[in-house]
Specification:
By secondary structure, this protein is an alpha/beta fold. It has 2 domains: 17-109 and 281-328, no CATH class; 116-278, Rossmann fold (3-Layer(aba) Sandwich), CATH 3.40.50.11660. Helices cover 23% and strands 17% of the residues. It has 10 helices and 15 strands. The chain has helices at residues 33-37, 151-158, 180-190, 208-211, 228-234, 249-261, 263-267, 283-291, 303-308, 318-324; strands at 17-20, 45-48, 57-61, 75-79, 97-100, 107-108, 114-116, 136-141, 164-167, 191-197, 201-202, 220-224, 241-242, 276-278, 313-314. It has a 6-stranded parallel β-sheet. Strand 1, helix 1 and strand 2 form a beta-alpha-beta unit. Its main location: Golgi.
């Protein structure tokens, strides 16, 4: 974890840095407790909810609010966890730092972060048969029927070639959120595949739909959302299938039928289990440490362009998107 180079060499007490949160983030109670609870190596920070003029940093969650005049020494941070299609368009705001799920943020705040116990070991033998006694093919829990990508159309096309059971407002089956544990038990026991489809295809946008609904259960996630290279960087090796690996839903269905017939091949997608864990990224510790770094904070000339500019999201598939873009502009 980052610690400013001079932090432990200065001796004596460090100035207390004030982080103001105008709205949201209820888990961060007023005071310094969260920095001690997380055992931050740099913990001389405190949370405040008022008096913005005295704050060293103002953290805007989801949208910018008017907090009065800003001093030259004050840092403004924009914190987004939703994708560009579902966040405020930020204009004429001098943002210094960003905190989002994107890897090019100043503070990277992913939904989950996977870490191997040994980076050289990404697969280990499994004794459990994850296909045993499962009689159903593909499940999907979904409530947003009008997303910014083509996931509904893709799922319906896929269902022409393989059984796809859609639960929730967008399908004919029901499993209420109030009975979520029962729903996920059913997923574990009956289904081989789960559609972990995001509501938008945006850079690095990988949410609990994949990490919790998919990898958190004994099903093989089929993913749509971020670019295939983003999943490869964020997920355990060979733990999912990306729709853009296939030219069409029909081709994907053919491969799923193959997996359904071949338990060994199906189980090969679970060899990541036991090789690592999802870790705490200690968001508040990193923010506090950055505030104690003497280097001047940068600023974004146009944070809106960085957040939602060309190539960040696509309403088509990434396969189609990459074909139409110059090689130099493709996702890397």
């Amino acid at each position: 974890m980052f610690v400013p180079p001079d932090y432990n060499r200065t001796g004596g007490e460090h100035l207390l840095k004030k982080i103001m949160i105008p709205h949201g983030m209820a888990e961060a109670k007023v005071g310094p407790d969260i920095f001690f609870q997380q055992r931050c190596p740099v913990n001389t920070c405190t949370i405040v909810r008022d008096n913005p003029d005295s704050a060293d940093l103002i953290l805007f969650k989801d949208y910018i609010t008017h907090v009065g005049r800003r001093s030259n020494s004050q840092v403004w941070m924009l914190y987004f966890l939703e994708c560009p299609y579902h966040t405020q368009s930020v204009k004429n705001a001098l943002i210094n730092w960003t905190a989002t799920y994107r890897r090019d943020s100043d503070v990277v705040a992913p939904y989950e972060r996977w870490q191997y116990y040994d980076s050289s070991i990404t697969q280990i033998p499994q004794t459990f048969n994850y296909a045993a006694n499962k009689t159903k093919k593909v499940a999907w829990f979904v409530s947003n029927c009008h997303p910014r990508n083509q996931r509904m159309h893709y799922a319906r096309e896929l269902s022409k070639y393989i059984q796809v059971d859609i639960y929730g407002a967008c399908g004919s089956l029901r499993c209420p959120r109030s009975q979520s544990q029962t729903c996920f038990d059913m997923l574990d026991e009956d289904y081989k595949f789960y559609l972990a489809f995001e509501n938008s295809n945006c850079k690095d946008y990988i949410t609990e739909k994949f990490f919790v609904n998919g990898l958190g259960h004994n099903v093989l996630p089929i993913v749509m959302g971020a670019h295939p290279t983003d999943y490869a960087r964020s997920a355990p090796y060979r733990s999912y299938i990306h729709v853009d690996e296939f030219e069409s839903p029909k081709e994907l269905a053919e491969y799923l039928h193959r997996l359904d017939r071949d338990d060994d091949l199906y189980n090969s997608y679970f060899r990541w289990k036991g090789t690592g864990e999802f870790i705490n990224t200690y968001f508040w510790c990193r923010v506090c440490a950055m505030l104690h770094d003497d280097r001047l904070p940068k600023y974004y000339k146009d944070v809106n362009e960085w957040w939602r500019g060309d190539g960040v999201c696509t309403t088509s598939s990434w396969r189609e998107h990459d074909i139409t873009r110059p090689q130099s502009q493709r996702n890397t």
